[in-house]
Design brief:
This protein has about 350 residues and is an all-alpha fold. The chain folds into three domains: about 1-120 and about 265-290, no CATH class; about 120-255, no CATH class; about 290-338, no CATH class. It is built from twelve helices and no strands. One of its GO terms (molecular function) is magnesium ion transmembrane transporter activity.
């Protein structure tokens, strides 16, 4: 059952990586058109959105079959899969650091699947209620609220927009998201396989927590992506999110209860390999630029020409002719001085 959940998570993350590249490819195609249509009228863009929904559904279903501490770290497959699909869809270069990062991520995934907590835990409404009022979770929630309020004060009142503050706020919300997603998905799975659980109020409480935490999580994540490069946001967010999800799984669902010390060490080493793999794949990716095409106008009488006129990245036109006024001004200035 755990292996089935792990496969759902891996396939879901790979489908998400493909969907992101399809959406980006559709934007590039529309930008090359003389009269581009709105992106939401593109069939290709909608196919990417549909694949995104399929991938997220696979991730959601995975929480119903596998522990949180197994599903959450497998998000590294979305980043590494995106590096492969970008070569096919966007014609990007596959670097040596990409190959090394993907190798480390796959090795980390193998360790995670084999050494994640092997517990069989039916997530019923009664078990969620039991964990929800447990002293471990209550202490954990109180500490989370305190840290969240302190960081929110520095962010809103003091105007501190450091990436660590923003992504820590995202991670604190993500821990509630992971707990509620596991509860909702687990209760749906339990309802299908055994007994109906959707009549319990705890199901709808967890559903509301899931939606609310996702909305505010996306809000802070968008602020981080506006202020910082994706090559910085992606690995830091993956590390913070995974760490927060693992702690949430340990505290709320007690997934490492009774686990051997060697198993925990190898599991953490697998997490470290996946973190390092994500960092290598995303490192310096935005600093690479594809060679821009140029227009060769040839010789035009009365115009001072360059051999190759590069596209103007700041304007709407593809290329611009150099204005000879500056050169004539400088020449006239030199004559006056003489």
């Amino acid at each position: 059952i755990h292996l089935f959940g792990a496969l759902l998570a891996i396939l879901g993350n790979l489908v998400i990586s493909i969907s992101l590249n399809i959406q980006k490819y559709s934007h590039l195609q529309l930008a090359q058109q003389e009269h581009p249509r709105p992106y939401f009228k593109s069939v290709l863009w909608w196919s990417g959105v549909l694949l995104m929904a399929v991938g997220e559904t696979g991730n959601f279903a995975a929480y119903g079959f596998a522990p949180v501490t197994l599903v959450a770290p497998l998000g590294c497959m979305s980043v590494t899969g995106s590096a492969i699909t970008s070569v096919m869809f966007l014609k990007e270069n596959l670097r040596a650091s990409d190959i090394l990062g993907m190798t480390l991520a796959i090795a980390g995934t193998y360790l995670l699947v084999n050494f994640a907590p092997n517990i069989t835990q039916a997530v019923s409404a009664r078990s969620v209620q039991y964990h929800f009022v447990g002293w471990q979770f209550l202490i954990y929630v109180i500490l989370e609220i305190l840290i969240f309020c302190i960081l929110l004060y520095f962010h809103k009142r003091r105007g501190m927009k450091h990436i660590v503050i923003l992504l820590t706020l995202v991670a604190l919300l993500a821990s509630l998201t992971v707990i509620s997603v596991k509860a909702v998905s687990g209760m749906i799975t339990f309802s299908v396989m055994d007994k109906m659980q959707l009549t319990y109020p705890i199901f709808y409480i967890m559903f509301i927590i899931m939606i609310a935490s996702c909305v505010f999580q996306v809000k802070f994540l968008n602020q981080a992506t506006k202020l910082y490069n994706m090559t910085t946001v992606v690995p830091v967010n993956h590390i913070f999110f995974t760490t927060s999800a693992i702690i949430a799984g340990i505290v709320f669902y007690q997934e490492f209860f009774g686990a051997a010390l060697l198993t925990v060490f190898i599991y953490l080493f697998g997490c470290f390999l996946s973190f390092l793999g994500v960092f290598l794949v995303t490192r310096n990716r935005e600093k690479e630029h594809l060679q821009q095409s140029f227009i060769d106008f040839g010789n035009i009488p009365g115009k001072q020409m360059l051999d190759k006129i590069q596209p103007d990245s700041n304007g709407l036109s593809y290329g611009t002719l150099p204005d000879g006024s500056d050169s004539t001004k400088s020449q006239s200035g030199e004559k006056k001085e003489v």
